[in-house]
Write a structure and sequence with these properties.
The protein is mainly alpha-helical. The protein has 2 domains: 5-180, Growth Hormone, Chain: A (Up-down Bundle); 200-379, MFS general substrate transporter like domains (Growth Hormone, Chain: A, Up-down Bundle). The protein is built from 15 helices and no strands. Helix 12 (266-285) packs antiparallel against helix 13 and helix 13 packs antiparallel against helix 14. The radius of gyration is 20 Å and the shape is globular. The relative contact order is 0.15.
């Protein structure tokens, strides 16, 4: 008999706190890193891009690793990679910085796949809500780390120590997970499930995730720059990103909860796509409305970003016939999503240069909402299976 579901949830939340934070420590320290290592802006940016692409690779191989080691053991090991990468970044040199960041990206990518597998195996009755809870934990970790990165660099004596310190909570989380799961029967090695490229549902889930990821990373990269171009101060434009981030928290909890309560995904996925469309069109056509200014547009886009990720993982956990299939489908979806996330902001930047403005770049986010809309409509009105329903086959 395995651990109680509540203990499993606690362990998942502890691990999830470490699945965005270490990468969020890098941007606030970018100036110090460049000065300390003599890096060009392009090289410094490539370090973070490498992490996103490593997340894509980790997502694509995560199901195989889970099949070989067992999902629970592999999940702990993947967060251990995050700890190792963080510790490696404590060496103030370019190669350890880049290698450590890639290890963090790999660990995050593998973990994202295995979280879905563990939820399907242990907490399938509340898959969407649990997905929302661990996404909120990721966001909370990211917010905390980005807020304290610079003060820690000052207090600890350098940027490298501020990056390395996040190995500690990752190791603590792995220890907590190991204690919780120590009574779990050892997993047998399984034949790896291939990524389901020919499966219609998996392709639609990947299309949806591509739209979500493009919205997240495209808006994170370019919302503030759009308003700086309109004459806002960098500090004021930075507050837009804070509003964008805060709006994600209730979305990641409320929308999956509504999906669980109603047993349906499509109505809420359509609301998410509509929030993106309204927010982006607002920025393009009416960027500074009276009274509410741009904050409402940033909040709408942030709400869509926060809700899209757990809704997609929730529907995968609902419809996958078993934990292995859930891992393979989520791995494919996340791998595609992170790949698009690595390319999308670059495409938007090219459009800014070509058009000498931001409207065309923001239209890329409308395209992202279009991907979500197409996938949602093509899936149909997905409903949560009841325990009495037969195991779906595809």
């Amino acid at each position: 008999m395995g651990p109680r579901p509540m203990l499993v949830l606690i362990g998942l939340l502890a691990l999830s706190l470490n699945l965005r934070g270490p990468l969020s420590a890098y941007p606030p320290l970018l100036g110090d890193v460049r000065e300390g290592l003599g890096l060009a802006a392009g090289t410094a940016g490539a370090v973070q891009t490498g992490a996103i692409l490593a997340m894509a690779v980790g997502s694509l191989v995560g199901a195989r690793i889970g099949a070989a080691l067992g999902s629970t053991r592999a999940l702990g090991a993947s967060v251990g990679l995050v700890a190792l990468g963080s510790a490696l970044r404590g060496v103030p040199a370019t190669v350890p910085l880049a290698l450590g960041t890639i290890l963090i990206g790999l660990g995050i990518g593998i973990s994202g796949v295995l979280l879905t597998s563990v939820v399907k195996d242990r907490l399938a009755d509340r898959a969407a809500a649990v997905s929302g809870a661990y996404v909120v934990a990721m966001m909370a970790g990211s917010t905390i780390v980005s807020a304290v990165a610079v003060p820690l660099a000052v207090g600890l004596g350098g940027w490298s120590f501020s990056l390395a310190i996040w190995a500690v909570p990752a190791l603590v989380a792995v220890a907590v997970w190991s204690v919780i799961m120590r009574g779990d029967p050892p997993a047998r090695a399984q034949v790896p499930t291939r990524l389901p490229w020919r499966d219609r549902f998996a392709r639609l889930a990947s299309t949806y995730q591509a739209g979500v990821s493009l919205t997240v990373y495209g808006s994170l990269t370019w919302i503030a720059a759009t308003y700086v171009d309109r004459g806002w101060s960098p500090a004021s434009a930075g507050l837009l990103i804070a509003v964008w981030s805060i709006a994600q928290l209730p979305a990641a909890l409320v929308m999956p909860w509504l999906a669980e309560r109603t047993g349906r995904i499509r109505p809420w996925a359509l609301v998410v796509a509509a929030c993106t469309v309204v927010g982006v069109l607002g920025m393009i056509l009416w960027p500074e409305p009276p009274l509410v200014d741009a904050w409402v547009w940033a909040a709408l886009i942030g709400f869509a970003c926060g809700a899209g990720f757990p809704l997609n993982l929730g529907v995968i956990a609902w419809l996958a016939p078993d934990a292995q299939a859930a891992a393979a489908t989520s791995g494919m979806a996340l791998g595609v999503g992170y790949t698009v996330a690595g390319i999308g902001p670059l495409l938007m930047g090219v459009l800014v240069d070509l058009t000498e403005g931001y409207a065309a770049a923001l239209c890329v986010l409308l395209g992202a909402a279009g991907l979500q809309l197409v996938a949602t409509l093509a899936m149909g009105d997905v409903r949560r299976p009841s325990p009495a329903d037969p195991v779906p086959t595809r």
